[in-house]
Amino acid sequence: MKRFLPLILGGFLLSLLLSCSKSVATQFTIPAKDPNVLKIAFGSCSDEKKAQPLWKDIVAESPDLWIWLGDNIYGDTEDMDIMRSKYNTQKSNPGYKALMATCPIIGTWDDHDYGVNDGGKEFTAKAESQQAFLDFLDYDSNDPVRSSAGVYDTYILHHAFANVKVILLDCRYFRDSYEKDNKWPIPNYGGTILGDTQWEWLEAELAKKEADVTIIASGIQVIPSEHRFEKWANFPNEKHRLFDTVIASGNKNCFFISGDRHIGEISKEMHENYPFYDITSSSLTHGWKIRREEPNARRIGDIVYDINYGVIEITKDKDLTIKALLKTKEQKVLSSSILDGRNN
After folding, report:
1. CATH for the stretch 3-338
2. Per-residue pLDDT band at 277 (split at 50, 70, 90)
3. Which residues of 218-251 are buried (b: 16+ CB within 10 A; e: fewer)?
4. Which three-class secondary structure state does DSSP give residue 13?
5. Beta strand pairing status for 153-158 and 26-29?
């Protein structure tokens, strides 16, 4: 069983084909708002109690898609009445409601909307929290995702000149724990972030090679490794497996987007001659109180302290060009990079 939800965008009818199986991607056929540019916006860390001034700028971007990258609210509770109340507060925000009327919205979660700071598979209310999250993103009550573990999912955008696959990872539901030494994580070489079932699913999705561009969304940073907070590098073998899986799949134009950190930055890491990028956008509502420097040898450009959102712009002349931008109020660009070396 599949369901179709019509959405009017600028006079066009957008058909959202929502699949009934995680083995089949949800597909968006998008009448181009701009036939020359495919634009995907994303962000993370939105405190439902705080001012949210960026929505009007994001709406003005006229994105073809919005992707939540986690901490979409600050739930931090096992009480699902409280969790749902906070989701309702976020969903009733006038700026966010304007975005909902503008473009499709998809996403994954991180720890605070999962329900517990730095939480993993041990969180006892994770099944109930999953349902609250799926309600927030308007999943159908009969969608098979609701009867599966976790919130990972796949989408394909069909645009005038490119098909874009978005793979949403769940870095919480199955994640093992790790120890700390004076607040610094001790790498867990044998632990997992994704769990066996999600790994099998990810490998199968990448093996399909059904898009010109593949965006892998992770609630936590994939590339940066020098800070003491949550990141894929806390599970070194999982990070290497992620890189190796992308390379083995043969997908071109594959990169990561992430949130969590309350800073923005663009990172690049070479792995077996494949250029991996990680565009981190955080926070939509609040950043660091002290603008301290943080080492990241793989950072491209400057660290971004202001509240920010991310934009991926895909254009095509002879070849595809993919540009990543981090923006703040009045669409001011704080950092940007062309994602080059993609073997087009």
Report:
1. 3.60.21.70
2. very high
3. bbbbbbbbebebbbbbbbeebbebbbebbbebeb
4. strand
5. parallel
Distance CA 264, CA 280 (A): 5
Q: What angle do CA 294, 222, 129 make, to 5 degrees?
A: 105
Q: Is 259 left (phi over 0), alpha (psi -120 to 50) or beta?
A: beta
pTM of the model: 0.93
Query: Residue 186, SS3?
Result: coil
Q: Going by DSSP bridges, is the β-strand pair 333-338/320-327 parallel, antiparallel, or unpaired?
A: antiparallel
DSSP bridge pairs for 310: 42, 326
pLDDT tier, 37 (very low <50, low <70, confident <90, very high otherwise): very high
Please give the Cα distance from 161 to 313 (Å, whole number): 13
Q: Does position 144 have pLDDT exceeding 90, yes or no? A: no
Structure-token pair, residue 106: 């998809």
Helix then strand count (H, E) for the chain reads 7, 18
Q: In whole angstroms, what separates CA 232 from the centre of its chain? A: 14
H-only helix segments in 49-150: 55-60, 80-91, 94-100, 111-114, 126-136
How far from 311 is each of 29, 291, 336, CA to CA, in Å? 20, 23, 9
